[in-house]
Amino acid sequence: MKPATKILIYTDGSALGNPGPGGYGIILKTDDGQYKKEFSQGYRLTTNNRMELKAVIEALKKIKNKTIPIEIYTDSKYVVDAINQKWINKWQAQRFDKTKNPDLWKEFVKAGNGLNYKIFWVKGHNNHPENERCDQLAVQAANSDKLLIDEGYENNRKQPPGLFD
Length: 165
Fold this sequence. Notes:
By secondary structure, the chain is of the alpha/beta class. It has one domain (7-154): Nucleotidyltransferase, domain 5, CATH 3.30.420. Helices cover 35% and strands 25% of the residues. It is built from 6 helices and 5 strands; from the N terminus they run βββαβαααβαα. It has helices at 48-61, 77-84, 87-93, 102-112, 129-142, 151-154; strands at 7-15, 20-30, 36-46, 70-74, 117-121. The protein has a 5-stranded mixed β-sheet. Strand 2 and strand 3 (36-46) form a beta hairpin. Helix 1 (48-61) runs parallel beside helix 4 (102-112). The termini are far apart.
């Protein structure tokens, strides 16, 4: 049998209410068909963009072989454009000052360091089997009773005026 020549990552994020409960779904597999695994996690209060980015971060963290090429597929233009349009380079040069979700972008840089990856956009809800499955995983995670706290969101969001004055 021929060994894997690349790792394929499929991701999706979801937030019910945006902000609201959210989750992400991930499929990791090799192009030789020898390995396939699914992952998901839910959070009690977050946003869709945060879950889209968190999915990619968590997928990259799971990669052990740093030499094999990686292809990432997501329906998030936010994530794809930030990387492919090189916005992230500008944000990083500015230490992520005035960047939305700076905690996650810093985490993304760290997770992707040393990996050989390319990221591709797929149209969401368009019968792409892996994207549809990741969406199911993300929504199930958001609806779970085992929700984590998205510290980066909950600790940094602005409270409505007068709420704690």
